[in-house]
Amino acid sequence: GEALAVSARVAPLGSRLVLLLVEDLTEARRIEAVRRDFVANVSHELKTPVGALSLLSEAVMGASEEPEAVERFAGRMQIEATRLTNLVQELIDLSRVQNDDPLEDAEPVRIDELVAEAIDRCRHQAGAKQITMAAGGTADLSIWGNRGQLAAALGNLVENAVNYSPARTRVGIAARRVTAPGGDLIEIAVTDQGIGISDKDKERIFERFYRVDPARSRATGGTGLGLAIVKHVAASHSGEVTVWSSEGQGSTFTLRLPEAGAARDRATDDQTPG
Length: 274
Ligand code: ADP
What we know:
single chain; 274 residues; alpha+beta; five-stranded mixed sheet; 7 strands; disordered N terminus; binds adenosine-5'-diphosphate; phosphoprotein; Sensor-like histidine kinase SenX3; nucleotide-binding; two-component regulatory system; transferase
């Protein structure tokens, strides 16, 4: 409709320009649709824990004579509060990835700092499920990139590992430097002993809003945006994210990103005249 009308108007200007304009319109419309979906989804997701908290606090007030009931309601309140915290965290992550050029304020970002932040972010949830978190190989490695976005990416992977694992399991984070033709890469692997992902779902989990089990995801404050954010951050840093998984056994998500020295050298080469 609209796109065709525009292309007809500018047709005399040459087909290349027309193509660009039409593509532009489609992209703008796609972004707008995603934004609308997102606002609708998140508003809906926020209403649930807020509503539950309000009901539960009333229940606590009415049960002041029964300590056991109060304790039970307080436990539920804690779960709903965690859900809210996770939703708000997801909003923060999204706002972090919305700037046009993430590498505008790129800097060397230390892996041990990123890992510490990611672990800190889900310490509470991991503690409640008695999940052990262990990190290795992170010393003296740095990635060239946007600190906030890299923190959002790794934070989401570690958070998922904790969310989709049963109690008393282990989440491992391992980093290493890998030699590659275009310059060294840093590989960060997040491994869990959780529910795993089927081959069919593996193809779709990086899409926005895709969740294998919406009820389970929602229970932990998931919106289905986490892995879309991870993929976006990896791509905008000239890196990639891949998944290996075995259903019922666990999953490993691997981020490969340019090593700080290598990426900086490439940037300097690009500026060399001639
Ligand atoms: P969510 O907010 O639902 O966690 P994500 O985009 O982070 O959204 O993940 C999309 C879906 O991929 C999740 O709903 C879940 O079904 C699946 N998933 C992600 N990480 C894992 C994991 N470590 N183990 C098993 N399933 C996972």
